[in-house]
Amino acid sequence: MHGLMNRAIQCFVRDTYGPDIWQAVVRRAGLAFPDFEAMLIYEDKITVAVLDAISVELVKPRAVLLEDLGTYLVSDPNVEALRRLLRFAGICYEDFLHSLDDLPGRAQLAVSDLILPQLELRAQADGRFVLSVDSARMGIGPGFGHVMVGILRAMADDYGALVMLDHRGVTQGREEIEITLVEAAFAEGRRFELGARSG
């Protein structure tokens, strides 16, 4: 697993639950180091051990933790870069949804050895979509779909859209998320500027 992914998990735990919980996770997972390095590659079993340790320490199912991680990746000020990458997809939530197929490729433009699951969006009738997430590429089993649920929910808030999301489980090795766009302009979205501010 790429160090960026592991570092994101570490930052999520530390920023949300505090450094003491992260240190407890380090001990429980049997890590020989206190912090992940963003540009290293780690064995997948290390990531699995960390996720298991977080689940035990926080007494939360892995699916809930991964969804919370997805929300954190978009909404926390400490990780603004991912939100910016996602917001470049378009001016409305539906534009964002239609850009998801290209997300793994866009991520690799930024970090060439970063592997994300393949995403495939299928439009249905009446504002409904199904997002297929090929988590097998991640090497840690199903679960990235739950991260995507958190990202999708946080991005809906970002755009001011009202959506309903349902993780439908795994079908033929791919996680499926049903997305119902109830109202595209339900509330005022978060401010977004194309150019990054300096200083």
From TrEMBL:
InterPro entries: H-NOX_domain_sf, Heme_NO-bd, NO_sig/Golgi_transp_ligand-bd. Residues 2-161 form the Heme NO-binding domain. One of its GO terms (molecular function) is heme binding. It comes from the Bacteria. SUPFAM superfamilies: Ligand-binding domain in the NO signalling and Golgi transport. PANTHER family: GUANYLATE CYCLASE SOLUBLE SUBUNIT BETA-2, SOLUBLE GUANYLATE CYCLASE GCY-32-RELATED. This is Heme NO-binding protein. It comes from Pseudooceanicola atlanticus.
